[in-house]
Design brief:
The chain is an alpha+beta fold. Helices cover about 30% and strands about 30% of the residues. Helix 2 runs parallel beside helix 4 and helix 6 packs parallel to helix 7. It is flat.
């Protein structure tokens, strides 16, 4: 909390948040504003969680010899419709994870939760409202609404992203190279982001 009190915003959006003129992260998304400072997210989203998805040792041959770096992929979310994925490379594991968390916060996105399965009509936000697709590299993910109680029918990596986003029931199908963990996570993230691009009848009055 002390870090936020010492925060000196560098952007117009940051200054508006610091002054209290913007009090909800939903206002930022509704106006399609770009988040350039992680403190904006820290101020407006108090219950954000993070989880490391993957850490790789990346080696590169140079004239001076072999250089090694750690590459971290991290997901952040509040389990209530906000999710972000970030990657970073540094010489040490700790800084790589912290840098990836910062990147994930800057790329945080809202998702639209709902109950779009024909097998369920509870109207609770436990799944997604309609089928979506996401693609990163050669990995594709198709996400479909599922009835309450089914759980997350997906791979381990996708489950981390879905749980942090607040999805408890879903059908998912993958194509391509899912062993490339960061691409699998980002493809799932892209599929979830697309739910926010279309408004359902339930959202018309909001």
């Amino acid at each position: 909390m002390s870090e936020l009190s010492e925060w000196i915003p560098k952007t117009k959006l940051g200054r508006l948040v610091k002054k209290g003129e913007i009090t909800s992260i939903d206002e930022i998304f509704q106006q399609s504003l770009k988040i350039s400072e992680q403190e904006i997210v820290d101020t407006l989203v108090s219950n954000l969680e993070d989880e490391v998805i993957n850490i790789n040792l990346v080696q590169r041959q140079t004239d001076a010899g072999e250089k090694s770096r750690f590459k971290a992929c991290v997901a952040v979310g509040n389990r209530m419709g906000l999710i972000g994925i970030g990657e970073a490379k540094t010489k040490e594991i700790g800084p790589a994870i912290r840098k990836a968390i910062t990147t994930a916060k800057l790329q945080i996105s809202p998702i639209r939760r709902g109950c779009g399965s024909w097998e369920c009509s509870c109207h609770d936000p436990h799944s997604i409202p309609f089928q979506t697709k996401g693609k990163t590299g050669n990995c594709r993910v198709i996400a479909k609404p599922a009835p309450k109680g089914l759980g997350l029918v997906s791979g381990k990596v996708a489950k981390i992203v879905l749980e942090l986003a607040g999805i408890t029931d879903i059908w998912s199908k993958t194509f391509g190279e899912t062993r490339t963990t960061p691409n699998y996570a980002k493809a799932t993230f892209e599929a979830l982001k697309k739910t926010y691009k279309i408004m359902t009848p339930r959202d018309w009055g909001r």
